[in-house]
Amino acid sequence: MIAALKAHLPILLVAVPLFAAPLCALFRHPLFAWTVSMLVTAAAFAGSLCLLAMVMAGGPLSYYLGGWAPPWGIEFRLDAVNAIILVIVAGVGAVTMAYARASVGQEISRAAQPLFYTAMLLCLAGLMGVAATGDAFNLFVFLEISSLSSYVIIAMGAERDKRALTSAYTYLMMGTIGATFYVIGIGLIYTVTGTLNMADMAARIGELEQTRTIPVAFAFILVGLALKLAMYPLHLWLPNAYTYAPTVVTAFLAATSTKVAGYASLRFIYTVFAADFAFEERTLLFLFLPLGLVAMFASSAVAIFQSDVKRLLAYSSIAQVGYMVLGVSYGNVTGLSATILHLFNHALMKGGLFLAVGCVIFRTGSHSIDAFRGLGRQMPWTMAAFVIGGLALIGLPATVGFVSKWYLVLGAFERGWWPVALLIVASSLLAVIYIWRVVEIAYLQPAPAGVAVKEAPLSLLLPCWVLILACVVFGVYADPTVTIAETAAQSLFFDPGAGLPPMDGP
Amino acid sequence: MIDFAQVLSHYNYWVIITLMMTGLYIIVARGNLIKKIVGLNIFQVSVFLFYITISKVAGGTAPILTGDPDTVYSNPLPHVLILTAIVVGVATTALGLALVVRIKEAFGTIEEDDILEIEHALESETEPQA
After folding, report:
1. What DSSP assignment string belongs to A270-308?
2. Which residues of chain A does B24 touch, with a Cβ-Cβ cutoff of 8 Å?
C-alpha cells in the first residue's frame, strides 16, 4: 500500500486536489469544503516533502502517466529544482488554507465559500502540475488550469471592492496572451523537433540551434512565461490583482504563482534550450541584467509612495522578481542558486507579510496604510510578524532575505560585476524605506482615539507566524535550503536534459 | 529578391500572422471589454490555425486508419493538442464574459475609459484620509 502510494506520488500530488475540487462544489457546505481543502493541502505538503527527500536521496524521478513511456506519453519528471517548488506551493497552500477558515469566513459570503475553495484547490492542482510535468504542452494545460482558477479567486474580492473585477479582467487578458505566446513557442519547437517531452526536446534542439525557428520559439516562450512571472515591463496586471484579491488569495498567489512561472522559465532556459544557447546569443545577459536592475529600483521606488499596504507589498514583489531575474542574468551557478534560493525565501517572507496584513484587515477592515496607526501596541503579535517579515525583505542577517542576497552578491563578484553588488545593497535601502513607513505609522503614531482594535485571533496569527518563523529558521540555519538550491542549480546548469528517458521505441 | 511563388505558397502563414496581429491590435486599441474578448479570440484562433497548418503533410489524408499501408496521413498530434487549446480558449472566453457581466453590474458600463474614471474617483475618495 505504502509502496504503491510512493510509486504514484508525483501524480497523486496533482490528482488529489484536482478531484477534491468538484467535491467542494457538489456539497455546498463551507465547513465541509474547508475541511476537505485543509486535509488535501496538508496531505499534498506531506507528499511533496516526501518527494523532495526521495529526490535528494536518489536523484531525479520519472513517472509515466498511464504507463506510456515518453516521448509518446506524458512524463512527470522530478529533480531537485521542481521538488523544492512543489514543497513551496503545497506548503504555502497548507498554511494559507489554515488561515482561510477565519479570513474567508469574513471576506466572502457563505454561499460563495465552497466555490472559493473549489477554485483554490484547482489553482493548487494546476500549480503543482506545472511544477511536476516534464511535457511542454501538458505544462500549458496546467498553467491555464491554475490561471483560470486564479482569475476566479481574484474576482471574488469583489464583495469588498468592485475593482477586484476589473483587475481580474486585466489579468485574464494579459495571462491569456502570455499563455498563447507560450503555445506558439511550443508549436514552433514541435515543427522542428517533433516532440513535446522537454528532455527529448533538449536532446534534439542541440543540432537545430542554427535554424531561425528555435530562437523565435525561445523568444515566444520567454515572453509568454515572463508575463505570468510579472517580470518587470510585463508586470502591469500584478499590483491591482494583489491589492483587490481576498487576503488569502493574495498571500497564496504572491508566494506560489509567480514562483511557479519563474520555475517554468528556468526549466526552459536551462533544461530545454541549454544555458550556452541562451547565453551565447547574449539575449539573457543584455536583456535580463538591465531589466532585473530596473525592476529592483523602479518598483521599490514606486512601492515607497503607496498609501495601500497590500499594493506596497505588490510592488515590492515585482522588485523581488527583479532579484530573481538578476540571478539568472549572471550566467553562473552561484547566480542561479541565488535565484532558486530567492524563489523559496521570497515565498516565505511575502506569504508571511501578506498574512500579517490580512490580520490587520480582519480587525480593521482596511488595508490602507492609515489603518495601521497605533497598531504596534494594539496588535503587538501581528505587527511583530510584519516587522520580522519586513526585515527579511530588506535582507537583514539571520533572516532568509540575507541568505539569498548574500548569494546574489557572491555571484556578482564571481562574475567581476562589483557595481551590480553595490546596486543590490543600494536597492535594499529602498526596501528599508517602504517597510519603515509602515513600521513608523504602526509604532510611533498614536492610535485614533476611541477605536479599540483587538489582537487578531489565534487561527490567523498561527499560520502567519509559521511562515514568519520559517523566515528566521531558514535564515539562521540555511544549510538545507542552500544545499537544495545548489544541487538544483548544478543539475540545471551542467546537464541539460539529463537522464533522458530510455528510448526503446522503433 | 523576394520569391513571390514561395510567399504565395505559404499563404496560410500570412493568414495566421494577419489574424494574430488583428487580434492583438483589437485587444490593445479597443476600449469596449466585450470587443477586447473578441480580439483575444481572434488572436487565439490564429494559433489554432497555426497548429493545424503545421500538422498538414503534403498529400496526406485525414488521420483515420484506412487499412492500406501506403496511405499518407496528416499528423494527428497537433490536432489533438489544439482541441485541448480550444477547450482552454472556450473556458477563458466564458470566464471573461462572466467577468464582463459582473463588471457591468458593478460599474454600470463596459467601456474601459468610463471604468477607469470611476476607479480614479474611488481612489481619490479614499486618498484624503491617507
Report:
1. IIIS-HHHHHHTTHHHHHHHHHHHHIIIIIHHHHHT-SB
2. 177
Instruction: Please tell me the total count of domains within chain B.
Output: 1
Q: Nearest chain A residue to B83 by CA: give it.
A: A141
A254-264 pLDDT, tens digit each:
999 999 999 99
Which of B91, B126, B129 lies nearest to residue A148, judging by beta carbons?
Answer: B91
Given its phi and psi angles, is residue A161 left (phi above 0), alpha (psi -120 to 50 degrees) or beta?
A: beta
Q: Number of A to B CB contacts under 8 A, please give it.
A: 80
How many CB atoms lie under 10 A from the CB of residue A252? 30
> Domain limits at B83?
4-126
The set of residues, in sequence order, having a beta carbon less than 8 Å from that of A367 and lying 6+ positions away, is A243, A308, A309, A310, A357, A360, A361
Measured between beta carbons, the chain B residues lying within 8 angstroms of A196 are 81
The predicted-structure confidence for B58-85, as pLDDT tens digits, reads as follows 888 888 888 888 888 888 889 889 999 9
This model of the complex carries an ipTM of 0.92
Q: How many CA atoms lie within 13 A of A437 on its CB side?
A: 21
Query: In whole angstroms, how far apart are CA A221 and each of A70, A183, A224, B52, B76?
Result: 22, 8, 5, 19, 23
| Mutation for testing the A interface, residue in B24, B32, B42, B102 having most A CBs under 10 Å | B102
Question: What is the rounded distance in angstroms from the CA atom of residue A279 to the CA atom of residue A315?
Answer: 29
- Min Cα separation B104/chain A (Å): 10
The average pLDDT across A115-121 equals 93
Instruction: Report how far residue B35's alpha carbon sits from residue B16's, in angstroms, rounded to the nearest whole number.
Output: 20
Q: DSSP code of A231?
A: -
The answer, for B49 touching chain A at a CB cutoff of 8 Å, is: no
CA–CA separation, B48 and A203 (whole Å): 27
- The CATH number covering residue B116 comes to 1.10.287.3510
Contact between A357 and A248 under an 8 Å Cβ cutoff? The reply is no
Q: What is the pLDDT of residues A179-216, one digit of tens each?
A: 999 999 999 999 988 888 888 888 888 777 778 888 88
Residues of B numbered 13-32 whose beta carbons fall under 8 angstroms of chain A's beta carbons: which are they?
Answer: 24, 27
Q: How far apart are the first and last CA of chain B?
A: 64
